[in-house]
């Protein structure tokens, strides 16, 4: 019996830890909208700031650094005058597309259930 409990605990840990890792990387209300904006095409900081409505420049800078550390976003500095910095999604960042699409689909169904059909369980 103890072996079964230990096995179940290990199985739980092997499922929970990767989910926690993913949530740690994508947590907050800004990272996924930034990734979605960059999936369309690369952008300069000001373009991204304009496209991700409601985010402050300071928060955008912080989030971009974290996404870059986690290899989801690439920062490219162009030797122009003045210097131009572009952000783009990495190939690894594109691997989040199915996850983001599933979140969007679930969110749409949830919104429909809560707002338009609250009496259904």
From TrEMBL:
Domain HTH hxlR-type intervals: 17-115
Keywords, in A-Z order: DNA-binding, Transcription, Transcription regulation
GO molecular function: DNA binding
Classification via InterPro entries: HTH_HxlR, WH-like_DNA-bd_sf, WH_DNA-bd_sf
SUPFAM superfamilies given in the database record: Winged helix' DNA-binding domain (SSF46785)
Protein name: HxlR family transcriptional regulator
């Amino acid at each position: 019996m103890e072996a079964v409990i230990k096995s179940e605990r290990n199985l739980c840990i092997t499922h929970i830890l990767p989910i926690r890792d993913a949530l740690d990387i994508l947590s907050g209300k800004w990272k996924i909208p930034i990734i979605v904006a960059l999936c369309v095409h690369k952008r300069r900081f000001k373009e991204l700031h304009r496209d991700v409505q409601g985010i402050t420049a300071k928060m955008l800078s912080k989030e971009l650094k974290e996404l870059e550390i986690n290899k989801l976003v690439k920062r490219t500095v162009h030797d122009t005058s003045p210097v131009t910095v572009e952000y783009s999604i990495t190939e690894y960042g594109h691997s989040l597309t199915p996850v983001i699409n599933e979140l969007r689909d679930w969110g749409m169904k949830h919104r429909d259930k809560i707002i338009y059909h609250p009496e259904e369980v």
